[in-house]
Amino acid sequence: MSGEARGRAQVLRVGLVLVAWLLATSGARSLMAPDEGRYVGVALAMLHSGDWLVPRLDGLPFFHKPPLFYWIGAAAMGVAGPVEWAARLPSVLGASAAGIALFAFLRRWTDDRLALWSTVVLATMPYFFLGAQFANLDMLVAGCISATVLLAAWAVLAHDEGKPWRAALALAHAGAAAGLLAKGLIGLLLPFLVLAAWCAWTRRLATLWRLCRWLPGWALLLALAAPWFAAMQRAYPEFFDYFVITQHFRRFASSGFNNEQPFWFYLPVLAGLTLPWSLGLLLPRRGNAAPELGAAARDVDRLMWTWLIVIVVFFSLPRSKLVGYVLPVLAPLACVVARRILASGPMREGRGLKAAAAAAMALCLAGVGTLVAMPQPGARLRLPADARIGPDDQVLMLDSYIYEIPFYWHLRAPVMVLGEWKNRPEPERDDWRKELTDAARFDEARASRLLVDASRLPAILCAPRVTWLVGPNNSQLQHPWLAGTKLVAVNDRLAVWRHDGAARRGSHCAGLSDGLPERQP
Question: How far apart are CA 508 and CA 521, in angstroms?
C-alpha cells in the first residue's frame, strides 16, 4: 500500500472512531428546552410537510437561520424516526467534520503524532463533546468553518510548495457553501478573516489573492448555496431584509437580544469547559522536547493562533453572547494544547498523555450523565398510555408555545397558540412570542388561523372535534373555564386538558358569553 493510500486509510479510521465516540451517547437524554426543541421541531415539520425548501415553526416560515441543519435532521428522522440521536445527528456530523479535517491537515503539514493527539484532545474536550450532542446550529456551522479554514490553508501551503492545490481549494469552497447554508454569512466571513490575517502574518497575501481569483471555486460555492437563498427571496420579498439585515447586522450591533455579557466572557468559558486539557497551556515548554518540524509547521502554529484570536475577538465584540458561538475555536485550541503538551517533558510520554485522555473522557461522560440525571423541565410532559391524539383532533397551546410537544407527541400538523396577538408591542427579546410574531409576517393568512385570541375560543371549543389544551399548570387562574374540561396529565410546570366539543356541543356552547366558555360544575 502506498503512503498516500495508508494516509487515507488512517484518516478513515480516525473518522469512524470519532463519529462512533460522539454518536454513542447522543440519544441518552431528552431534548433540552428551548433550543433543541425549536430546531428539532422545525426539522420534523419539514419532514412531515414534505416542503424541504421553507423551514417552518408551527407551520409558519421560520427564517432565523438557513436550512442545512433541518435538511440533515429531517433526513435522519425520516430514516430512524423521531428519536433524539437522529435529531442530534447534524451536530455530530459537524463536530466530526472538524475533527477529521484537523487530523488530515496536521498529518499532511506537521507529523502523525501531533495530528493524532490534537484530534484526541479535541474529541475529549467536554465543550466539544457536549456541543456535538446538542441539537442546535452552533456545532454544525463550527464544523463547516473549521473544515473551510483548514482546507483553504492546505491550498495556500500546497500552492507555495508547488504541490496540487485545486482539490483542497474546491473542498474549501464547498465547506464555505455548507457554512452559508448552516448559519448564514459567518460561514464565509469568518474563514476569510482568519485566512487573511494568517496570510498577512506569514507574508502570503499574494498567494491568497491568486487563490481568491480561482473562478471554479466560486462557481461551485454559488451552485451549492445560492439556489436556496434565491428561491426564498423570490417567494418572500421581505426575506433579504429580515434574514440578512436583521438576523446578521442588527443582531450583531444591537443590545436588544438575549444574554448580554462583558467583552471577556469567552475567556473563562474556554478555560473552564475545556478542562482538563486547558491546564496543558500552563505546562513549561522545554527547549528541544519536541522535534523541529520545519517552516510549514511553524506557519501551521501561526494559523492556529491567528484562528483562535480572530474568532474570539469577533464574537466578543457584540453585547449578546452565547456559549456556542465560539465552538469554531476548539479545533485550533486543541492543536495549541497538544503542541504544548508534546513539548513539555514528562507529559509528552505516552503514559501521561493516556492518563490525561482517560480523565478527559471521564469528564465528557460525566457531563452527559449529569444532564441525564438532572430533573427534567415540565416541557417533557408525556400523555398517558390511554390518551391518544386522533388525526382529526386539534391542539391548542395556552399563552405559550412548548417547542418539544410536537416531537414527543408525534404531531404532524401545526398547533394553535392562544395569546394576545393584536395591538401588542412587538417583542424586543428572543422568545417564542417574538419568533412566532416574526414568522407570521411571511404568511399572514396561515398565521390568522394558528395564532388565536380569546374571541375565537367559542368557535374552537365548540367545533365537533376533540381539542387538547396545553399550558402552564396554573392556567386555570387565567382561564377558569378550564374547570369544565378533563385534566389528562400534569407535572411541575405544564398540564394537559381534553375537551370533547362533539359530546358537549349543545348546552355547553349555549352558555358561552363574552368570547369565553362558561365555568362548568
Answer: 11
CA 246 to chain centre: 19
Give the helix ranges, DSSP H, for 317-421. Answer: 330-342, 350-373, 405-408
Give residue 492's Cα distance to chain centre: 28
Give the three cell numbers for residue 459: 368557535
Closest by CA to 175, choosing from 235, 97, 247, is 97
Examine the pLDDT at 272 and tell me if it is beyond 60: yes
Cβ neighbours around 305 below 10 Å, total: 16
With beta carbons less than 8 A apart as the criterion, state whether 247 and 303 touch: no
Q: Where are the alpha helices (DSSP H) in 397-443?
A: 405-408, 432-440
Q: Which of 476, 493, 324 has the alpha carbon at shortest distance from 405?
A: 493
- DSSP 8-state assignment for residue 51: -
First-residue to last-residue Cα distance in the chain = 82
What is the overall mean pLDDT for the chain? 87
Q: What 3-state class would DSSP assign to 489?
A: strand
What are the tens digits of pLDDT across the range 219-236? 999 999 999 999 999 999
**b/e per residue 28-47 (b: at least 16 CB within 10 A):** ebbbbbbbbbbbbbbbbbbb
Yes or no: say if 68 and 140 are a contact pair by the CB < 8 Å rule: yes
Q: Binning pLDDT at 50, 70 and 90, where does residue 521 land?
A: very low
The pLDDT value recorded for residue 505 is: 53
Average pLDDT over residues 472-479: 83
Q: What is the dihedral of CA 139, 224, 229, 318, to 10 degrees?
A: 30
* pTM flag (> 0.85): yes
Q: What are the grid coordinates assigned to 81, written together? A: 424516526
Q: List Cβ neighbours of 447 (8 Å cut-off, separation of 6 or more).
A: 60, 436, 439, 440
Strand pairing category for 451-452 and 416-418: parallel
- Decide: helix, strand or coil at residue 418: strand
Among residues 192, 205, 184, 200, which one has the least CA distance to residue 141? 184
Q: Return the DSSP state at 293.
A: -
Residue pair 438/239 in contact by the 8 Å Cβ criterion? no
Length of the chain: 521
23-58: pLDDT as tens digits: 999 998 989 878 899 999 999 999 999 999 999 999
